[in-house]
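Record 1 of the preview.
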Amino acid sequence: MIKSDVSHRFGDKLRAIRERKGITLKIVAEKAKVSESLVSQIERNRVSPSIDTLLAIADVLEIDIDYLFKDYRRTKKVNIVRSDENKTISTPDAIYRQLSLLGDHNEEHSLEAFIIEIRPGNEKGSTLYGHRGKELGYVLEGSGELRYGHELYEINTGDCVSFSSDIPHILKNTGDDILKALWVITPPKMFIIND
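->
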């Protein structure tokens, strides 16, 4: 599919490599099985090629596809949550302080990280249902237990747990002090739902 509104510009790189190798537009077009006019328009950034067309032209010119996209990787956003900007959710059992939220909850590699503080004797989670995704937790302070399905795991300061979230699970503070842990969930759940 060809779009006239070009937001990703590959043309300059393609033309520079084609000219350096001494290959004509006609040869590129024939080998890529597209029109010479299309190759010319792509090189002049007049149209955006479909991914299939871009891959075909890259193959003809023997270009590593990563080379074409490397500039776009460099411009990705860095997400910084300043210490005074953390969102906090308080429940009777726990306090959740958001550290980061990367991506939309529907994106494949989206995740959220937060610090959780569970008061002595309290817990978070459910024995009835899980949710899609994965979790990783690192105990910063305190002690507790993770009930995962029918299994029970004791966890203490310095311990790290990771698991698939689709099994019902509960994190309980079994100590005398606050259980404080760094928690990472993918896809995001806590702060997406509570925004």
